[in-house]
């Protein structure tokens, strides 16, 4: 029965976690719904506010006409509309114009006014059988698209005529059903609509015409919905005043967001007497990468908790086995400690053997006790410096530049400039550090004796580089001494030379080249770095 306890705990806790995850999942969906409706509402408000702002602009233009108590001259009308900054600040509105109300047969006066105001010969169009006409006699700004609409009889088209009659009846701004504007002379055609306000030359006089504005629905929505932040939804605006809805604007991909089809909303608003229905559908950008993040985190935590409780129970059952494993680990640690002690003994024996060998060779090549003491002490300092660097790095690696600088400062003094040393960062293992420490000491001692550096009559330059790759990588180091007087090679090699050869060729398996020049000595060392 005890063996069944861990899986039983796992199942019970996992089921409880699944229930909590489902609750969080539903809460996330509800929050997404609220957030989506808020964004969609804000998008619709932006379109409504911009449209009403443009209609308010039209109302102010009607007030401008009313203040003159007669038809406004085209020059004054042009100055007024230019001051509004239509093209700069009111994207979506195509312009502001005036359509005169005349009887059929009185077109000549409107045509003369168009010719006088805009310098074009334009007959009122199209032909009509109606008794009244409303040709466009002024339309600003006078760009190519607006000039194409001059003379158009808007009363001849049913949707425009219905909007004008509604404006006459209410005395307030009224919008038309969706139409194709007379300005649509390019291939980039958009659905449009118009807003009309009736104008009377006198307060109790007859209707003289209509102040109106044409709108391109696509431009209006782009201005309202555009900006630096892309909305995470697709959008549609339809005129639903009549039984059959007519689309004014539809963003790309509307209705294609199948994974988020449950996130959609509709809202109907009155726009100058017309019912506009705004529809919005969420896109994949709405949720992004953190979709259902909290439910996934809750599920993951619940699962981890179930696993943790099950594993904790299992660990308690296996406490005896854990104790045995701990005992085995302790024994292994003791063995590793013994191994480290053996390695330390081996290192000490090697160091003692090296010191004895240096002592014997130094004694054999020294003529007095003082000379032996000085040479032997210097070489022991070189070994000690290398040992110190290895100790500071826990016997792992020593830096070549630091090792070289330490030996040169010890032999040549602290004023020896580091600008004479050039090379990339190289880390040396224990054996290479020991060998190169002694080698640098011997080379620096020889340079001090024979190159005139102590008297300021010579120079020393040291550079190195890495050649080859991976297992065939080598350290190539050039030691170049420059002397004011010629340096003649000695006939026999001293202990220092033999020590250098033993370190580079014997200890490190490298190659060594010496070149005696008229003005000094160049020593090149090639040392394998396979294990570094």
Helices, strands, pairings?
Elements: H1 5-68, H2 74-84, H3 86-89, E1 96-100, E2 102-103, H4 107-118, E3 132-133, E4 136-140, H5 144-149, H6 158-170, E5 174-175, E6 192-200, E7 207-216, H7 217-225, E8 233-239, E9 246-250, E10 264-271, E11 274-282, H8 293-317, H9 319-364, H10 369-392, E12 398-399, H11 400-412, E13 421-422, E14 427-428, H12 430-450, E15 458-467, E16 474-483, H13 495-507, E17 511-517, E18 520-528
Parallel strand pairs: 13-15
Antiparallel strand pairs: 1-4, 1-7, 2-3, 5-6, 6-7, 8-9, 8-11, 10-11, 12-14, 15-16, 16-18, 17-18
Helix pairs in contact: 1-7, 1-8, 9-10, 10-12, 11-12, 12-13
Put the structure in a nutshell.
The chain is 49% helix and 20% strand. The protein has a 5-stranded antiparallel sheet with strand order 4-1-7-6-5, sandwiched between helices. Strands 13-15-16-18-17 form a 5-stranded mixed sheet, covered by helices on one side. Strands 9-8-11-10 form a 4-stranded antiparallel sheet, covered by helices on one side. The protein is an alpha+beta fold.
């Amino acid at each position: 029965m005890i063996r069944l306890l861990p899986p039983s705990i796992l199942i019970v806790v996992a089921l409880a976690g699944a229930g909590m995850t489902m609750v969080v999942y539903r809460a996330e969906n509800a929050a997404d719904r609220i957030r989506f409706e808020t964004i969609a509402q804000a998008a619709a408000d932006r379109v409504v506010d911009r449209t009403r702002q443009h209609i308010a602009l039209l109302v102010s233009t009607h007030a401008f006409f009313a203040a003159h108590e007669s038809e406004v001259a085209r020059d004054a009308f042009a100055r007024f509309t230019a001051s509004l900054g239509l093209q700069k600040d009111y994207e979506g509105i195509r312009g502001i114009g005036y359509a005169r109300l005349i009887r059929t047969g009185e077109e000549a006066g409107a045509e003369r006014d168009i010719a006088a105001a805009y310098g074009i010969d334009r007959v009122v169009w199209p032909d009509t059988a109606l008794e009244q006409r409303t040709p466009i006699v002024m339309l600003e700004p006078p760009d190519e698209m607006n000039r194409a609409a001059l003379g158009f009889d808007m009363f001849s088209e049913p949707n425009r005529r219905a909007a004008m009659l509604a404006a006459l009846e209410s005395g307030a701004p009224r919008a038309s059903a969706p139409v194709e504007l007379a300005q649509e002379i390019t291939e980039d055609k958009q659905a449009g609509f118009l807003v009309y306000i009736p104008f009377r030359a006198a307060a109790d006089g007859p209707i003289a015409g209509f102040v109106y504005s044409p709108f391109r629905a696509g431009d209006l929505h782009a201005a309202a919905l555009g900006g630096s932040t892309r909305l995470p939804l697709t959008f549609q605006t339809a005129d639903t005043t009549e039984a059959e809805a007519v689309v004014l604007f539809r963003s790309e991909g509307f209705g294609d967001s199948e994974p988020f089809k449950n996130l959609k909303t509709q809202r109907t608003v009155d726009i100058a007497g017309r019912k506009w229905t705004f529809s919005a559908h969420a896109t994949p950008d709405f949720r992004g990468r953190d979709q259902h993040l909290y439910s996934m985190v809750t599920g993951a935590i619940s699962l981890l908790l179930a696993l943790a409780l099950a594993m904790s129970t299992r660990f308690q059952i296996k406490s005896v086995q854990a104790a045995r494993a701990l005992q085995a680990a302790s024994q292994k640690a003791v063995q590793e400690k013994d191994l480290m002690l053996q390695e330390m003994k081996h290192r000490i024996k090697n160091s003692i053997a090296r010191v004895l060998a240096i002592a014997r060779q130094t004694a054999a090549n020294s003529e007095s006790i003082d000379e032996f003491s000085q040479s032997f002490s210097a070489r022991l300092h070189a070994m000690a410096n290398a040992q110190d660097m290895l100790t500071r790095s826990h016997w792992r690696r020593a830096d070549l530049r630091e090792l070289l600088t330490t030996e040169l400062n010890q032999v040549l003094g602290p004023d020896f400039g580091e600008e004479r040393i050039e090379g990339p960062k190289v880390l040396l293992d224990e054996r290479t550090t020991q060998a190169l420490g002694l080698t640098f000491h011997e080379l620096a001692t020889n340079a001090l004796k024979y190159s005139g550096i102590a008297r300021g009559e010579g120079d020393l330059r040291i550079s190195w580089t890495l050649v080859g790759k991976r297992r065939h990588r080598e350290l190539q180091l050039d030691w170049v001494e420059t002397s004011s007087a010629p340096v003649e090679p000695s006939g026999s090699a001293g202990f220092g030379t033999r020590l250098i050869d033993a370190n580079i060729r014997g200890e490190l398996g490298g190659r060594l080249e010496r070149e005696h020049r008229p003005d000094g000595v160049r020593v090149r060392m090639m040392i394998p770095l396979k294990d570094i």
